[in-house]
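Posting this for the archive.
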Amino acid sequence: MIATPSPKQTSKSLDLKQLFIHQLNRVNCTKGYLVRNLPLLIEIASFKTMKLAIQEDLDDVKKQQIRIDEMYGLLGSKPSDEGCDVIKSVIEEAFNLNNNSGKSTIINDMDIILYMQLIENIELSSFRMLKMIAQFMGNEEVTQMVTECFDENVDNDKLFTLISEEYLAKKTDDSK
């Protein structure tokens, strides 16, 4: 005999799926924005190691977009831009790409590092939430994909911290 889920269980599952997709849409918007704008940051950055780190982050973002597309497929859903205005505003403010003229190189480079870490932390929080929701949904495949995205963001956040330390050490040595 096959157990039929109660209407309450079905409603709860649908609510979790809807919540997951809503949050996934926000992450998806963020990833699309990063793919379009990270190449500009690579051009603006003056420190070679930072350029390489931003490129590495861009490569990870592209891999994450593929996983996100797979998650949409597994959940029988399609991406939506609904609810993306807030995250776009935060990221646009963080990048503030049109406002880098007249700044010293060190201020410009440190701004880029700061903003990259800010974005990494927004993404970490988003993936942490998605991971929790996916676990409650009981979808192991989606949980695994979210975990992989989360782990990449943790690594990138650490990378930008190390680069900021290296950059500041170099600038301090250069001024002696």
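Residues 1-7 have pLDDT under 50 and may be disordered. Helices lie at 7-44, 48-74, 85-95, 105-137, 140-174.
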